[in-house]
Design brief:
Length: about 325
C-alpha cells in the first residue's frame, strides 16, 4: 500500500443552531472549518485544543457518525462518504473508537466478556467456547485477568473499565483507533498506565491512533505528531518533538507556556492569554485567534491565515510567524 492510512481533506462541519428549519442564512455553529491531515499506518496523531474547539466533532466525522458539511475522509484511499450502508459497516471494522467515559459507553447489563466479544459477534456467530477463548485473549492483551470476563462494568475500577473499552476496540483488529479523551476521566496514576498500554499495543500490533485530548502533558507522552486546534481550525501541525521544543504559532506557544510538563501526569491546560475563546457561531474575522494575540497585525483582522508548510516540515497558520510564500498546504 502506498499513501497514508487515513487522509482528511478540507473537512467542514457546521451544526444548524435550530434544527428543522432549513433557511440558508440561519446561524450555524462552525465546529470544524477546513481541516486537513493524514495519519500513517502505526502512527499516533494527537489532536489537542481547548474545550469546544471541534475535537470530538472530528472524531465523529472520522467514524462517519455525523456527515460532513464539506470535505472528505479517505481510509486507504477509499472515500468513506461514497460507501453504501453495508460497505460502511464492513469498513467500520478497520476503524474503532475508544471514548472518554468507559462507564457510560459500556452496556451495564452485559458481562465484561460479552462486552468485548460483542463487536465480533455482530459479524459472526461464536460458540460459547470460542467466545470465552476470544474474551480471555483480549483481556490478556489489555492486561486484565481472565476471571474478569464474568464481572459487570459496575464491579470494575475506572482503569479496568477503560481497559475493557480498549479490548472492545481491539476485538475487530482495526488498523486505526480513534481515542477521544480516553484517559481524561481517570486518576493521574491510572492515566499513565493506560497510555503505556496503548503505546505497547501500538508497537505490538502496528495500530495507528488518532488521540484526542485537551491535555498537553498526555499528548507529549503519547504523540508522534500533534495538530493544535483553535476554534475549529488547525493552527499548527508538527512532530511532537519539534512542537514542544519550539512552538511557532502564538497560540501553541501560550498553551505550552501555561503547561510546562516535566511530569505527564501533572499538567493541566490553562491558557495564560487574555479573553475567552470566541463563539464558534460568530468567529472573529481573519485569524480567529487575533483578538487574543499580542502579535496581531492589520492583516490578521481580515485574512484567514492558511496553514503554511515551514522549512522543518511543520504546518503553521499565522500571518506573522509563518508568512505565506509559495507553498501552502491549504
Ligand atoms: P471539543 O470536543 O473540542 O470540546 P466539540 O467538537 O464537542 O468540541 O464541539 C465543537 C463545537 O460544536 C462546540 O461549540 C459545540 O458546542 C458544538 N457542537 C458539538 N456538537 C453539536 C451538535 N450536535 N449540535 C450543535 N452544536 C454542536
Ligand atoms: Mg470533546
Amino acid at each position: 500500500m502506498s499513501g497514508p492510512l487515513l487522509k482528511v481533506k478540507n473537512l467542514v462541519k457546521h451544526y444548524p443552531l435550530r434544527s428543522g428549519i432549513m433557511k440558508k442564512d440561519l446561524p450555524v455553529v462552525r465546529a470544524v472549518e477546513n481541516v486537513s491531515f493524514s495519519v500513517e499506518a502505526g502512527e499516533t496523531l494527537c489532536i489537542v485544543g481547548e474545550s469546544g474547539c471541534g475535537k470530538s466533532t472530528i472524531a465523529r466525522l472520522l467514524m462517519r457518525l455525523v456527515d460532513p458539511t464539506e470535505g472528505r475522509v479517505l481510509l486507504d484511499g477509499t472515500d468513506i462518504g461514497s460507501l453504501r450502508k453495508d460497505e460502511l459497516r464492513a469498513w467500520r471494522r478497520r476503524m474503532q473508537m475508544v471514548f472518554q467515559d468507559p462507564y457510560s459507553s459500556l452496556n451495564p447489563r452485559l458481562t465484561a466478556g460479552q462486552i468485548i466479544t460483542e463487536p465480533v459477534e455482530n459479524f459472526e456467530r461464536l460458540s460459547r467456547k470460542q467466545r470465552e477463548a476470544l474474551a480471555a485473549e483480549l483481556l490478556q492483551q489489555v492486561g486484565l485477568a481472565p476471571e474478569i470476563m464474568h464481572r459487570l462494568p459496575s464491579e470494575l475500577s475506572g482503569g479496568q473499565r477503560q481497559r475493557l473499552g480498549i479490548a472492545r476496540a481491539l476485538s475487530l483488529k482495526p488498523s486505526i483507533i480513534i481515542a477521544d479523551e480516553a484517559v481524561s476521566a481517570l486518576d493521574v496514576s491510572v492515566q499513565a498506565q493506560i497510555l503505556n498500554l496503548l503505546m505497547d499495543l501500538q508497537e505490538e500490533l502496528g495500530i495507528a491512533f488518532v488521540f484526542i485530548s485537551h491535555d498537553l502533558g498526555v499528548v507529549e507522552h503519547i504523540g508522534d505528531r500533534v495538530a493544535v486546534m483553535y476554534l475549529g481550525r488547525i493552527v499548527e501541525l508538527a512532530t511532537c518533538e519539534s512542537l514542544f521544543a519550539k512552538p511557532v504559532h502564538p497560540y501553541t506557544e501560550a498553551l505550552i507556556a501555561a503547561a510546562p510538563i516535566p511530569d505527564p501526569t501533572r499538567a493541566r491546560l490553562e491558557v495564560p492569554i487574555d479573553g475567552e475563546v470566541p463563539s464558534p457561531v460568530r468567529p472573529p474575522q481573519g485569524c480567529a485567534f487575533h483578538p487574543r494575540c499580542s502579535l496581531a497585525e492589520e492583516r490578521c483582522r481580515t485574512e484567514i491565515p492558511p496553514l503554511v508548510l515551514m522549512q522543518d516540515g511543520r504546518g503553521v497558520a499565522c500571518h506573522v510567524r509563518a508568512p505565506a510564500r509559495q507553498v501552502t498546504i491549504l
